[in-house]
Amino acid sequence: MNFKRFLSFLKHTLLVAVVLTTIGISGCDNGDDGPTVFNGTIMEMIQSSAYVQTDANSIAQADASLDSLVKFLKFYPDLTALLSGTDKYTLFAPSNTAFKSLLANPGFPQDIRKINPDLIKGVLSYHIVSGTTMKSSITSGASFSTLYTGAANNPDDKIIVNADGTLKTGSTTQNIAIVNADKQATNGVAHVTSSVLIPQTVGSSLQPILGTLAGSVFLGADFTSFAKLVNNADQGVGTADQIRTLLATPSITETSSNVRRTLFAIPNAYFTAAAAAKGITVDQLIASFGTGAASAARAILLNHIVTTNVAARTVYTVSNVEGSGDVQFSQGLTMTSNAGKTLTTVVTTASSSNPYGVVITSPSSPVSQAPIAVKDVKHDNGSYIQVVLGFLKPQ
């Protein structure tokens, strides 16, 4: 090698060394004497896919990416601000694969954005623990209280560490693995998990209703007011006689059952409009129907449900989407509600508030009527929701 070529080689070698040294310094606050700390907050760190990814030999790349978690956290500015602040937190961070596995559960809504936002916020809060907890402290028998508000009232809502170092939440997944630990930021640490952590109180209440009418009511972002009305009607009522139980039957696992139902569900938008017309809040409107077995709330809800006999397995639909078990709405068609009242179909000219030209009426005084705004929402247990704009009062 001649002298000029040697100098050129040396110059490039020194340049590469300087660049590599600079990268090493910028990515590590503690030098070579301690673990690498991301130069930013937990929120900034989990948005940095280059930082959270790990050795391909230890875990698939999909498990290293946190795009889904970041997307859902951004729906809640207070959670984003918390993970972007100066207080110390530990975040159990489900990977993209973890969210895909959650969506794969039978009956689970495929679009998480359509789930009750308060429910999603609660589940996300369950992944956050105050203070910095490193993997070395996540040992057999340890338990951690989270920011989920239900945890203080239910010891099963704590995150518990199994003997093998996996996590137990009290829900259906009892051995959640930490697949990428001790990702440190300036305000705490994140541990990537193989599953979404579901609190005991959430898991136990939702698992039986997935794929049923009750699942849509209590999970649905568009039916939070309707769900409150159901809760009011069920106060003090035995479980077997609750509206919630009626809407959850049959479950998607009860293949021997031939019961099918049609539910005329009222969306939040109608509750908002009806409350505004009376000059009151939505909560005041819901409260005005009363609570318990003798309330107007229960009577109205029973009048919004049609249960067919076992032999017929009939559901009522705008379009014949199922086959011989469907009865299409037609002029003068009558149905008997669970309140024992005769609901009648009126076919009219379609409009923006009545896009299918189908109105359901109830023989109250004056007659109640509710146009169908969203048609034929099918459920895994064979039942249907028709979204209506109105209360079908039974009397």
Keywords:
single chain; 395 residues; alpha+beta; FAS1 domain; 3 domains; seven-stranded mixed sheet; four-stranded mixed sheet; 15 helices; 16 strands; 31% helix; elongated; disordered N terminus
Q: Let me know the number of strands.
A: 16
CATH domain class name of the largest domain: Mainly Beta
User: What portion of the residues fall into strands of 2 or more residues?
Assistant: 15-25%
CATH architecture of the largest domain: Roll
Shape: elongated
**Uncertain ranges:** 1-33, 54-60
Descriptive overview:
The chain is 31% helix and 19% strand. By secondary structure, it is an alpha+beta fold. The protein folds into 3 domains: 1-34; 38-198, Roll (FAS1 domain); 211-388, FAS1 domain (Roll), CATH 2.30.180. It has a 7-stranded mixed sheet. Strands 2-1-7-6 form a 4-stranded mixed sheet. Strands 3-4-5 form a 3-stranded antiparallel sheet, with no helix packed on it. A hairpin with a 5-residue loop joins strand 4 (159-161) and strand 5 (167-168). The chain starts with a helix and ends in a 7-residue tail after the last strand.
SSE order and pairing:
Layout: H1 3-26, H2 42-46, H3 49-52, H4 61-64, H5 67-73, H6 77-83, E1 89-94, H7 96-103, H8 117-125, E2 128-130, E3 143-144, E4 159-161, E5 167-168, E6 178-185, E7 188-193, H9 200-206, H10 213-219, H11 224-234, H12 243-247, E8 261-265, H13 268-278, H14 282-288, H15 296-303, E9 305-307, E10 315-317, E11 326-328, E12 334-336, E13 342-347, E14 358-362, E15 368-378, E16 384-388
Parallel strand pairs: 1-7, 8-16, 10-11
Antiparallel strand pairs: 1-2, 3-4, 4-5, 6-7, 8-9, 12-13, 13-14, 14-15, 15-16
